[in-house]
Structure formats: C-alpha cells, structure tokens
C-alpha cells in the first residue's frame, strides 16, 4: 500500500494507540517519547539534518539509533552492543537456528533453507502476529568474511525469491542489512548492526518503525545476557582468527 494511504488510516491509528495505552499500560507521554520522528519532520532543505542519527535508547553496553532514509518513509536502524564473546562464538550462536526465538524478539521459529558454503546460507525466520499486526516471515541470504584487522563482516540480503510464500504470513522486505564484528581486548566483542527493512502489508510505518526499534532493543538485551554463556563460546570455526 502506498505511504499516502497509510496516513489516511486515522481510525486504525486511534484504535491501536488506545490498545497500547490501556492493555500495555503505556502512559501517553512515554508513548510519544519512544516514537521515532517521521522523515517529514526533519528539515527538508538540510541534507545533513535529514541523515543525522537520532538516539533512541542506550545503556552501559548497548545503543540503538535511527535516521530517516532519503526519499522514503522508512528509517535505518543502527544497533551497537559490547559484550564478552569470541568471533566464532557469535557466528555459531547466530547460526543456531532452533535457538533464534530465544533471543530474537517476537520470533517463533527459524530454519535453514540452503547451506551454499560453510560461510554462506539462506534461512527463514517466522514472527508471531498480535492484534492487529499479522504474522510475518523474513528470508535472508547471509555471507560472512574476516578482514585483515580480524574484524568480521556479515552481508545480509533479501532472499524472498528462494521460497514461494505458501503461508498467511506477510513477507518482510530487507532493503539493506549488515553486521560488523570487532574484537577488542580482554575477549570483548563490539557488535554493530545496521538495518533498513519494510514490514510490507497494511501496517502503518509510524507503528512499524516504533515496533522495530523496541524489538531491536529487546534483542540486544537478550544477546547481552545469553551470548557470553552460550555453549558456542567453547567452539571455533576453521579459518576464523581470534584476537590474542
């Protein structure tokens, strides 16, 4: 549905805002404070302002920011996390598909569709729906490599073409996504993830943006809690060199 059509669904906005306030017990001031700014609220004639990162939430080990995407109602999300982990431990944790719903917010199931090479695969993740948001699914083609400075990058691309949609779930579209893993001293790891995605369907983007930011934050906190204690910290990947 075109973005202009989203803006016209005032009744839906009112019903859902009431749902958040009453059933989730979110004060109106908090709801407004957590809402990302729409792209149209940025200074139209100032490209620097349009592309400036806005802080959404942070604590001592994690930070989530966002910025509007040029000529689009979408936002780009930047998530940063510092924790205790090896590079191999994180990569193996990420590829433990049955475990993904335990840390990826609102995910109900994930499974591998194709192992192209040891470092390249295609997988699908399913997300639970809740009224009035319908269930969704996301197909990802990921490839990772290690740089000379020991940092690891993971390129993430949309793989919707890899599997016909035979479910009632709406398929999320990945426009751009990328992981940057930087090993630090004392076995610490800095994780930086950037994402631009469209929820598709009839979900208003103001709501989708808000839900995406909150889901990202909850995912970071789950990673910080679970990854350092994961069984994968005791494993290594051939060819991946760790920081001394």
Describe this protein's structure:
By secondary structure, the chain is α+β, with helices and mostly antiparallel strands. It has a single domain, classed as Alpha-D-Glucose-1,6-Bisphosphate, Chain A, domain 4 (2-Layer Sandwich). The chain contains 6 helices and 10 strands; from the N terminus they run H-H-H-H-E-E-E-H-E-E-E-E-E-E-E-H. Strands 1, 2, 3, 4, 5, 6, 7, 8, 9 and 10 form a 10-stranded mixed sheet that branches. Strand 1 and strand 2 form a beta hairpin. The N and C termini lie far apart (51 Å). The relative contact order is 0.19. The N terminus is likely disordered.
Largest sheet: 10 strands, mixed
Output the helix-strand order: HHHHEEEHEEEEEEEH
Contiguous uncertain segments of 5+ residues: 1-49
Residue share in β-strands: 25-35%
Proper CATH architecture: 2-Layer Sandwich
Secondary-structure-based class equals: alpha+beta
- What shape does the CA trace take? globular
Q: What's the CATH class label?
A: Alpha Beta
| Mean model confidence by pLDDT | 82
| CATH fold-level name | Alpha-D-Glucose-1,6-Bisphosphate, Chain A, domain 4
Total strands: 10
> C-alpha Rg, in Å?
19 Å
Number of domains: 1
Number of H/I helices: 6
Helix content: 10-25%
N-to-C CA distance = 51 Å
């Amino acid at each position: 549905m075109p973005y202009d059509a989203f803006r016209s669904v005032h009744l839906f906005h009112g019903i859902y805002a009431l749902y958040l306030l009453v059933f989730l017990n979110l004060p109106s001031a908090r709801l407004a404070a957590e809402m990302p700014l729409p792209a149209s609220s940025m200074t139209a004639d100032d490209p620097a302002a349009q592309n400036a990162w806005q802080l959404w939430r942070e604590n001592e080990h994690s930070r989530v920011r966002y910025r509007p995407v040029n000529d689009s109602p979408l936002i780009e999300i930047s998530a940063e996390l510092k924790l205790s982990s090896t590079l191999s431990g994180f990569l193996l944790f990420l590829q433990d598909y049955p475990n993904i719903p335990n840390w990826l917010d609102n995910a109900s199931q994930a499974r591998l569709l194709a192992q192209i090479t040891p470092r390249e695969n295609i997988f699908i993740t399913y997300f639970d729906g809740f009224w009035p948001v319908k269930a969704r699914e996301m197909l990802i083609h990921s490839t990772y490599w290690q740089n000379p400075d020991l940092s690891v990058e993971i390129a993430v691309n949309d793989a919707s073409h890899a599997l016909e949609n035979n479910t009632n779930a709406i398929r999320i579209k990945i426009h751009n996504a990328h992981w940057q893993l930087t090993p630090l001293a004392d076995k610490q790891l800095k994780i930086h993830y950037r994402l631009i995605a469209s929820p598709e369907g009839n979900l208003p983007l103001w709501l989708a943006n808000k839900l995406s930011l909150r889901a990202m934050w909850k995912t970071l906190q789950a990673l910080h809690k679970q990854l350092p204690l994961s069984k994968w910290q005791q494993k290594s990947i051939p060819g991946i060199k760790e920081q001394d």
